[in-house]
């Protein structure tokens, strides 16, 4: 089974031509060269890939780990369950 982190990395490598070795849960979006427009585009891609809807309110997501936890939370909320921990993020916490 593919984890949220791995699926997000596939998007980043494919769409942003990023080196997979740079993609760690602690990597900040800024350090990867994603400005606010790039992050917005990433979220649109993530909506398609994960079949979730990001709310219109901005959420402070600084690192890839933040994005993974947020996607897992959205998946759980939109499908009526609890967030599932991924190997990249063993203690996924809901973002509020």
Automatic annotation (TrEMBL):
Name the PROSITE patterns on file: CARRIER (PS50075)
What organism does the UniProt record list as the source?
A: Thiomonas delicata
The residues covered by the Carrier domain are 1-78
| Signal peptide span | none
Sorted alphabetically, which InterPro entries does this protein's record hold?
ACP-like_sf, PP-bd_ACP
Which protein, by its recorded name, is this? Phosphopantetheine-binding
């Amino acid at each position: 089974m593919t984890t949220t982190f791995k699926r997000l990395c596939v998007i980043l490598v494919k769409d942003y031509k990023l080196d997979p070795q740079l993609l760690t849960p602690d990597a900040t979006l800024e350090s990867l060269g994603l400005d606010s427009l790039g992050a917005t585009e990433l979220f649109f891609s993530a909506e398609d890939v994960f079949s979730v809807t990001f709310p219109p309110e901005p959420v402070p997501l600084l690192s890839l780990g933040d994005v993974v936890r947020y996607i897992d939370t959205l998946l759980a909320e939109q499908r009526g369950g609890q967030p599932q921990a991924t190997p990249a993020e063993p203690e996924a916490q809901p973002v509020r």
